[in-house]
Structure formats: structure tokens, C-alpha cells
Amino acid sequence: MGKVSKLCVASVMLACLSVATIITLWTIALTGADAGDETAPWNRYRLPAQLLPESYNITLWPRLRPHPLTGLYVFTGNSTVTFECVTETDLLLLHSNKLNYTELEDTHIARITHSGGGVLSIRSSWLQPQTQYLVLQLNSKLRAGQTYQLYTEFTGELADDLVGFYRTEYEEQGARKIVAATQMHPTHARKTFPCFDEPALKAVFYITLIHPSGTVALSNGLEQEVHSTTLDGEGVTVTTFEPTKRMSTYLLAFVVCDYANISTNQGDTLIRIWARRTAIDQGQGDYALKVTGPILDFLQSYYNITYPLNKSDQIALPDFFFGAMENWGLVTYRETKLLYHPETSSIRDQEATATIIAHELAHMVT
């Protein structure tokens, strides 16, 4: 009886070991060689220190109508990140979350080129969902001190989850309108484009937005060029923005909407308040516009630091995760935090609006 029990236990243990081995082999096959290795760089939550981003050149096209077959709102885009290799490596890790990539001509989902010309050969590429990485293994090593470019094409969902590049909606004069907005803080830029999504890894961002004709596009930088064209049989507007200052990914922002604005100038700084057209018509942005300039002047004087940008956009969104977010040059607010109705809002509301504007603008000069 004892021998039979030992044999049964041994059989069960052998069966469990076999199942575990099969699962491990399938994990490796689906996610890449050594993906199940807990010590591998792609299974760690912090990026290795071999690469430093210099700039991103990003083009995004949010669709403000659902796809006729899937019913999903999506955006498409492409990105070229220029980075410097600090120490030799044959491994590239960039953050990526919930993005679907287009296979390029070599069947891989990215293309790597040297700044001096020439395409590098990729041995394997895969996505690591748990740690939210795009993983690229090369056939040769990147050289320390050299600059490279990584190009990708991708599609993401313009979901109503209030993070990354998301959508929100409102009704105006009986019409349902869609707004595409962003919330990158703390780690949601990776849901919009592949990037080195850690605050210390700052870079310059060159942003281009493709959007429906009749809508306006905003970003951290001032609009540099706006022109109309036709893409895929659809009339669209293409807006290119001035490059940003060197900054973290979590401060990047852009909005596509059918909003109106009021504006003024405080010295050399353009100040604009953006909101629903009816809200602007009712004067709900007037108070924010009135106090923003004096607040900026006070902060610059108090901290003895000059506001570093040529414009300050502030926009009221129907749905927003936080009360506000200090995106450099394009501060996003929940509507109730920025707008003040001269007939129905209270003095307490007025105080709250001034306080939160001061709080967000203080981030710009400290």
C-alpha cells in the first residue's frame, strides 16, 4: 500500500513538471526567446541605462468616428525616435502598451537606422505585455557614442478610459461631439506611441496631428503650419507644431476638438482659454483669461524665473481623470475647475478656479 502511494505521488509530480515545462516553452515561443527569464531586462520594470532619447518625431491621426465594421474609435500613427547609445548593446527596450504595430518590409515591427546611414538587421522583435515593452534584439551591437533612429507604425484605440490618447464627448445644440485628448501622467505616453517612458529620459517632441476638417488641433507648442489635404479619400487638416522644449514624456499633450477660444497677450506670451463654443459664448472662460496673466507675472517675479514658453493654452474638457494637469504649454482641466459662469457660479467657485490655475502655472516656473 505504501509503495502504491509513493508511485502515485511520483506520477503526479512528473505530470505537474511536464505541464510546467510545456507552459514555459509556449511562453517563450509566443513572447520571444528567454521571455520567461525573470532576470532578463524585458522582465524588469525599469529601463536599462544603455540608451538616451534625444527627440521624437510623431504623427497621429485620431478618428472621431467609429470604424464601420468594429464600432471602435481608433488612431493611427508613426514615430521616429532619435537616441544615443551610451554603452554597447544589441538589445533595445521601449515602453509600449496596447498598441498594434504594422509589419514593415523585413517582417519586423520596427526599423533601426544609423544616423550616418544604413539599416541595422533585427534578429527578433516582440511585445512584452506584463512590463509593457517593445523588445528588439539585433544581429549586431549599437556602438557607444553613436546616434540611431527607430521608426514604427502603429494603431491604438481611442478609448473612453481617460488615459493615454483617449476620447470624451459632449452634446452641443443637439449634436453629439467627440474630443480626442491626452493624459500621459504618470505612465500613459506608452499607450500613445512607443517611447522611453520614464521622467528622467527627457527629449524634444516634434508633433504633427491629422484631424477632421473644421476641427482644431492643439499641443504643447504653438501651431507652426496648418494646411488642408485629402488622405484615404477624406478631407483632413494637418497641423504641425513648434518643437517642444526638452521635457519628460508625461508632460506631452494634444487635443483635437471643435472648440472656440478667447485670447490675450501678457508681454510676449500668448494666453488662450479653450472650451465648448456655448461656454465661451456665455463668458465662462472670461475669468480664467482675466487672472492667468497676473498669476504668471506674480510667479515669475516671486521665483525670479522667466516663463519659458511663448504661449499658455488652458482647455476645459468634459471628462478628465484629475482636476487638472500641468502639461507644459497646454494645461488640461476638468470643466468645473476652469470655467466660471458669471451668473450661476459662486465666489467659492471663483476662488477655486484662481487657485487651481495658480497651482498648475507654478509647475511651469519652478
UniProtKB/TrEMBL annotation:
Membrane disposition: Single-pass type II membrane protein
Coiled-coil segments on the chain, per record: none
InterPro entries in the cross-refs: Aminopeptidase_N-like_N, Aminopeptidase_N-like_N_sf, M1_APN-typ, Peptidase_M1, Peptidase_M1_aminopeptidases, Peptidase_M1_dom, Peptidase_M4/M1_CTD_sf
Keywords: Glycoprotein, Hydrolase, Membrane, Metal-binding, Metalloprotease, Protease, Signal-anchor, Transmembrane, Transmembrane helix, Zinc
Active-site residues, Swiss-Prot/TrEMBL: E360
Protein location: Membrane
Sequence ranges assigned to domain Aminopeptidase N-like N-terminal in this UniProt record: 53-251
CDD domains: M1_APN-Q_like (cd09601)
Residues where Zn(2+) binds: H359, H363
Location of the Peptidase M1 membrane alanine aminopeptidase domain: 287-364
Cofactor(s) for this UniProt protein: Zn(2+)
Record GO terms (molecular function): metalloaminopeptidase activity; peptide binding; zinc ion binding
Any Gene Ontology CC annotation: plasma membrane
Main localization category: membrane
GO biological process, one term: peptide catabolic process
Domain of life the protein comes from: Eukaryota
Cofactor note: Binds 1 zinc ion per subunit.
Similarity-based family: Belongs to the peptidase M1 family.
Protein name as catalogued: Uncharacterized protein
Native species: Takifugu bimaculatus
Source organism phylogeny: Eukaryota, Metazoa, Chordata, Craniata, Vertebrata
